[in-house]
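Internal QA ticket QA-208
Title: Verify multi-chain structure generation after dependency bump
Assignee: T.L.

Test input:
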Amino acid sequence: MTLPARTGRATITDVAREAGVSVATVSKVINGRDGVAQATQEHVMRVVGELGYASSLVATSMRRSRTHVIGVLVAEFEPFSLELLRGVSEALSGSEYDVLAYAGAVSSGSHHGWEARSLSRLGGTLIDGAVVVTPTVTLPDNVVPLVAIDPHTGPTGPAVVDTDNLRGGKEATDHLIGLGHTRIAHLRGRGDLQSARLREQGYREALADAGITGGIVEEGGYEPDESAAAVGRMLDSPERPTAIFAANDITALEAIRVATERGLRVPEDLSVIGFDDIPAASAAAPPLTTIRQPLVEMGRAAVDLLVRMIDENADPEHVRMPTALVERGSTAPPGGRARGGRTPPTARERPEAPTGRGLRA
Amino acid sequence: MTLPARTGRATITDVAREAGVSVATVSKVINGRDGVAQATQEHVMRVVGELGYASSLVATSMRRSRTHVIGVLVAEFEPFSLELLRGVSEALSGSEYDVLAYAGAVSSGSHHGWEARSLSRLGGTLIDGAVVVTPTVTLPDNVVPLVAIDPHTGPTGPAVVDTDNLRGGKEATDHLIGLGHTRIAHLRGRGDLQSARLREQGYREALADAGITGGIVEEGGYEPDESAAAVGRMLDSPERPTAIFAANDITALEAIRVATERGLRVPEDLSVIGFDDIPAASAAAPPLTTIRQPLVEMGRAAVDLLVRMIDENADPEHVRMPTALVERGSTAPPGGRARGGRTPPTARERPEAPTGRGLRA
DNA sequence: CTGTTAGCGCATTCAG
DNA sequence: CTGAATGCGCTAACAG
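Actual output:
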């Protein structure tokens, strides 16, 4: 009951001094190493409790190889990565691993290379392995076991979890075609991203298969502002589209906003379909029809794989998750004709609630 | 171009060796200290680029006081803390701080004391300050600047961001009373939590003010499973309530599920109102009427305060955010009578979309 | 201008 | 069974 350390937290030295033993002994007790007398053990543990001591992750990880912490590296915490984080957290719940999520591009506006930098800053010491969300560059896989989710450069890395973007793009376009649309525009994502290119390719293939020529493509860049301008151009054009397939939900919602501002009704005057199924999609007005990526499940799959790689030295795999059309209120036949019961056979429907699962975790 | 370090990432020593200078020089260059020849600087930077070196957060933080990283400590990543994280990330975007979110109760099923343990593990070295989400214990405030969000023990700590739980509980109950309900049950949260007690107190006060006696209270513990049982008991009772005020959205959704399973229609046979307004609330069927806590804004307010405490040595404050009734489809007059236009004057309505904001960030 | 020295808090040999 | 010494990667004095 003397001084509980001069500043801030108690260190192992404080515990040792307080307990009247050496730091080495305290370390052994903490880590359950044997070779310490029963009485000493109990005494040390009591002091640990009194001082509220917990070993510093920092110091520990510098001396040790394993920290039992798994890192999730994201550019920033936006809806997409947050959903993945849910899955990661669920999968690790009750396991021996803690989760540390790091947003590496929040400061330093230079978004470039945040993946490698974050990895180098945390890897090797702080974390036993990492899940990297949507990396745009090839990652050094020698730092620490690694799983990439939805990498923008295609399945280059050894371990990857992604969805079938080509098929999803096709699915979205088929849905619109099935409703009777022929003037279908595509608001594409950043051209340098593999996922965006595949979604666009799916769009083109679907049009071609349906014998529709003259697609309309504008660059949305996965960004609200850029998309707003692009949607404006689409709606101003003489051949105004009756439907828009946006490369992700964020830009789809932006498209709805712009259209509504111009007095167009969604879906009567303009159908909009997105991609991802983030939580905001179902909460929008009208609720957004979209191609669902099973984000929570993807997060779970990624850590499952990662933990196997760490614990059992398992081989890296490439996991591809299926997409699914989620039909809501933002799409309808052109001209606002009656919905007409069900969707044509080209499009499938999954009625399940998108954000429903995981609540019980 | 010799060996880029034997294992994993390159260290400052590797860079020094490769560049033919001392580690101290490299350190100076990295940190922009002056006192290094222009030529040497450029040479070192080139080697840094070649080796893909980035300083280890761990080692740096052990020697330095500031890391420019802000920690967000949560028990686990569930919808509530994830929304807060959105606000934190938005507020810090473009600032000089990065965000590190740590889930401290994921492993070690012992949820007890995760706050202090996480703080001790990260604090003092790894992070410059921390936002602790929903702590159940009093925190040591001498480790690092600290802001608590929605602490369960009341505003004990020096810096706190929370909402007016008493008023919110009253608001929820008033809404049901205004609709004409008199047999109103409350599914309360964990009794040891201040927020839960305040919501219950608001419920009781509202009933008393309306001259309604004989409240029905069951323990839901903020937990789905426990709540399901409690709701079952309520619905089995001879004096079956016509409305339920659940202490949070998770348990409110559970209440709807249980009621539906028993063949009751919501809201015709049973009205349900929740608390929080998590994303799943608006996506539910029927969409959940609830008391909104402005989670994203709370996260933002918390870091704003924290950064001022770190940078400007500002005094800790207690920030209380307002709650707001969000009327959706899960409440109606008893017996399923027509909705009747608007809500009676006791209840107010905020039509804004709950998950809409922040999308542009 | 640059290199050397001394720790930060901890876990790990290796001697007592 | 316990304690003193060593070093993880890095930065901050201080020497050269």
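Spot checks passed. Residues 11-13, 23-24, 27-28, 31, 33, 55-56, 58-64 of chain B lie near DNA strand D (CB under 10 Å from a C1').
Status: verified.
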